[in-house]
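Troubleshooting: if your tokenizer reports a length mismatch, compare your output against this known-good record of 364 residues.
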Amino acid sequence: MKTTVALLLPLLWPLAAAAQMESNSSWGVVLAAAKAEGKVVVVGPPTAEMRQRVPATFKARYGITVEYLGGRSSDLTARLRAERNAGVYSVDAVLSGIDSMSSFFYREKMLDPLRPALMLPEVIDGSKWKSGKLWFVDPDDNYVLRIANSVSNLFHINTDFVKPGDLVSAQDLLAPKWKGLIAVEDPLVTGSGSNHAAHLYLQLGPDFIRKFYIDQKPMISRDNRVLTDALLRGTHPIVLGAEDSDVDTMAKEGARVKLLQGFSDLQPPVSSGYGHLGIMHNAPHPNAAKVFVNWMASKEGAELYSRARGSASTRNDIDQSFLPPEVIPREGVKYFDNHDWEYTVTKKEEARQAVRKILEELRR
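Known-good structure output:
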């Protein structure tokens, strides 16, 4: 009996230590206060799976209700700016794309430092992250944590109409046979559409932009669902800007759709999608906000995000076998980081303006 107890003790110590941390440490104090606050208000990706799974899983874990706000970034930022100008603080935490995070939340000082709010050992342990440390992307290395990094799905094709061998280089997109058969996300609207256009401009030049966006007469939409539907139906079998997770689901269900994994003349891009985490200044539920950001950066929260968004995590302790192998960055491959902070606030904006000038002049 004594031998059995002795053998079990090393197994029980970590559980006891975790329980003691939750009840007696500063984390326990924060968690108790968060439960008393009762809810947390979160801005996040406007997808059904995130809307459903984040509130349900967080509530099951901590007993705290999540009020989840998902919508177009432009609409949400306008609302938050108006509220804050009126002295109203309604949001606790945010998951956002790099454009909104850098040009709105960070620039307008709507964020509190996130690093001091991270408390869980599994979150602050650098060995749990692929880069060996938490990947803070802001200039202060303190406010915005990147929790996702995936190979971006620039172009998808419907293989009933287009074979992978038809498009080896980006220049192949300019062939006359594809005229009117390409669909793209609007390159003149801030977001992924203009991100794609900036990437193409910087790597392929202004002449490619003119030929691709004007001469090829692509269908242009601001709605990813319209682009995904065009891909599925084959009305536009080459699409730039379809929703990655939707295309992956369609492929698993037997649809003849496929990701084009890069071109010979174009570096494959990586991006974080909505995978930038921040905590709001003057959060109305400050303790629940801390619990939420710790959970989202934890293994459970990061894996939920990865599954819901179909994106690779920046943590290294998540089994990502559920992801298509092509979206997981590979060692030794040079990628173009569409969501690099410095690129976003300098070169990308310059490229966007150059693209806008070209397209507006040609459309007159």
